[in-house]
Write a structure and sequence with these properties.
Blueprint: E1 17-21, H1 26-42, E2 47-53, E3 68-72, H2 78-88, E4 94-97, H3 102-111, E5 115-121, H4 125-134, E6 137-141, H5 145-150, H6 159-169, H7 185-194, E7 199-204, H8 215-226, E8 232-236, H9 241-251, E9 256-260, H10 264-272, E10 274-280, H11 283-290, E11 295-299, H12 304-310, E12 318-322, H13 331-345
């Protein structure tokens, strides 16, 4: 999917009110912020509103590009969601599903906006049928794992670029490339109190503990990073709280700060004080990049060709690594993580 292949829906009619929709994950909404800013710049006199969920809402809480943020609680039943979308859609000229998900197509359709846009992956045929009936126009993305592996000579567009095509499809021309994630003063105070400037950041999440890495290599990586001499900050969520506590008890190093249960914006502010962040392929990649911090990201071996292009760190120095095959020795990957962290923090 490329911008030059798109025909704007109505380039001569400026929308007066735009409703953007993205109700999935934090990292994906972060990657949508250049498109959000591009909608604002393309139609500076329009009112721009967004519908998000209660989990990813902090990403747009302080953005200058949105006039109003509306929250759809996760788990809201379809009848209630339809009512909310219908109310928000009053006087909306353009509704845009920023994610390639039927859930967001439905919300756009329920808004009853006269122009409803979205994008869909080429080989998700059911979603393509849904897009045809729920949207008035849609773009098609070639970001497919099988196509990426079969045709490695064809680059996969980054998700930032895929979402930006919706601006072009709407007739917009003023594009922004920067990720936008702003923290509040309380978030910054939290980070300043907990995180020494120039720390190495390491984000724990469930993918570290898959069969092709695991607790022992993760602990070894943390020990090696702590030995580099800079303060080490470990961030983690409730989904890995127990294993994080286990590793913390085993290491008990005064050089390591452990931060669990932080809010999204406290977490972002903490990562912003780091010189580099190491993570697996999760939202931490994009939160750190939005804060301008270099990132070392470890991708799963399955679909590496696609993932390392579509979800690589955006516009920051980075290192892209791949997990070994299941059951393989992880020593070399641990070495590579530590070496990449050390190189990026010394830039």
């Amino acid at each position: 999917m490329s911008a030059d292949e798109l025909t704007p829906i109505d380039a001569n009619r400026a929308p007066r009110k735009i409703l953007l929709i993205r109700t999935d994950r934090v990292g994906d909404l972060v990657l949508s912020t250049p498109a959000i800013a591009s909608f604002r710049r393309s139609w500076p006199n329009a009112r721009v509103e967004i519908l998000v969920n209660d989990y990813n809402e902090p990403v747009v809480r302080h953005t200058p590009d949105i006039d109003a943020v509306h929250v759809l609680a996760r788990g809201t039943d379809r009848v209630k969601a339809r009512q909310i979308a219908s109310v928000l859609g009053r006087d909306v000229d353009l509704a845009v599903a920023l994610s390639p998900r039927t859930q967001d197509y439905l919300l756009a359709a329920w808004s009853r906006a006269p122009q409803r846009l979205g994008y869909v992956y080429r080989r998700r045929y059911i979603s393509r049928i849904a897009a045809r009936y729920l949207l008035t126009a849609h773009a098609i993305s070639d970001a497919d794992p099988d196509l990426a592996d079969r045709h490695p000579e064809r680059p996969v567009a980054h998700e930032v670029r895929q979402v930006q095509t919706l601006v072009v499809l709407a007739g917009g021309t003023a594009m922004s490339d920067a990720l936008v994630l702003r923290t509040g003063s309380a978030d910054d105070a939290f980070a300043h109190e907990r995180v020494p400037a120039g720390s190495i950041g390491f984000n724990l999440s469930p993918r570290w503990f898959n069969e092709n890495f695991g607790i022992a290599p993760t602990r070894a990586t943390i020990e090696r990073l702590a030995a580099l001499g800079a303060p080490l900050v470990i961030t983690y969520g409730d989904d890995v709280r127990d294993v994080a506590k286990t590793i913390q008890t085993a290491l008990a190093s005064p050089n390591i700060t452990w931060i669990g249960g932080a809010s999204v914006l406290e977490w972002a502010a903490a990562l912003a004080r780091c010189s580099v962040v190491a993570t697996v392929d999760t939202g931490a990649t994009h939160v750190a990049a939005a804060m301008g911090v270099p990132v070392v990201v470890v991708f799963e071996r399955r679909y590496y060709t696609l993932s390392s292009q579509e979800w690589s760190p955006w516009r920051v120095p980075s290192a892209l690594l791949c997990k070994p095959m299941d059951g393989a020795d992880c020593t070399a990957l641990v070495d590579d993580i530590v070496a990449a962290v050390d190189r990026l923090r010394r830039r």
